[in-house]
Amino acid sequence: MKELWDIYKKGLIVENPIFVLALSLCPALAVTSSVIVSLTMGLTVLFVITANNVVVSLIRNLVNPKVRVPVYIVSIATIVTVAQLVLQAYLPDLYKALGIYLALVVVFAIILARAEVFASKNNLVRSFCDGLGMGTGFAIAMVIIGACREVIGNGTFLGFQIMPAAYDAPLMLILPAGAFILIGYLIGACKILVERIEKSKA
Amino acid sequence: MGEYLTLFISAVIVNNFVLTRFLGLCIFFGVSKNVNASFGMGIAVTAVMTLSSTLAWLVYTYVLVPFNLTFLTTVVFVLLIASFVQLLEMVIKKSVPALYNMWGIYLVLIATNCVVLGVPLINVESHFPLGKSIVQAFGSGIGFGVALVLMASLREKLRLADVPKPLEGLGVAFILAGMLALSFLGFSGMISL
After folding, report:
1. Is the distance from CB of A37 to CB of A151 less than 8 angstroms?
2. Where are the domains of chain A?
């Protein structure tokens, strides 16, 4: 149990997919201008990465190593198509807001990387925990970025006005340039945090 | 003719795919450590993107739409591009080994990449005819290359700078990209499509 918790936990901060591993950066910038959209994207990726880890772990002894990457890609693409159809049917507004980036979940490096590095070598339960942990870490990072951009750049949180009416929002954070700069500083902050955690362990 | 020129300039500068639509960031931050490599990468991406967009457009229009299979677009495009890049690699390796030695390694990296998949998808979604799709793909490739080379030259300068420790590496690269995006913002409104 302790071991499974450790597998889950490492995706949250120490190996956070966005801030530390720096994989799958496209969505972290492109769909984080509001909290609700970032959350949807985060949960979608959480679902895809967990489901894919399970599938890859189940078929890991059947697949010839030479063709493993195409097989993983087909598996990911199928799961993403399922997610796309579900979102389109039940949450059409959010589906529109995510736009092309939803289809691009297929090529997010983090999903293929987890399949290759972890799920293809570990059993079902451990792969499931790894997917869940990495997905949660991804979703948390997305929500943090989304919250910073929405609160500072627009003065709202989940659509509610939380800043005083006189607050003059710097539009820059909603624009692409602001996203880059904000993530730069967040990566720095995460580095400090990881160092503190490792120091307290030592 | 004018329409195509506008589209081209818009794809290269105004709607630069890296700096305004955030596609291909993994390569953008991974390869931009030196200028020569980014030059090669820019050329490889432009070539692959133009060819694979054409291919993807043909498959979408003549296979997926007539058979009512558009819900499979994502799956089909990913496989199409990955296998096409693999094929291209083999052909170049056999026929032009010199070219392969120079730029072959970049081909492997772009087989499954946001920007290479993204542009054909955007073309299909905006219902572009074939000519426009090709122009848009070619322009986006050039725009990607321009951004990559600019970023690489900036990062080479940055090596001499005294950066605060937590921001070293990726952190400061992002802030730099932000500044670059800010300056590209100056072009917005120059062309309206």
Report:
1. no
2. 2-201
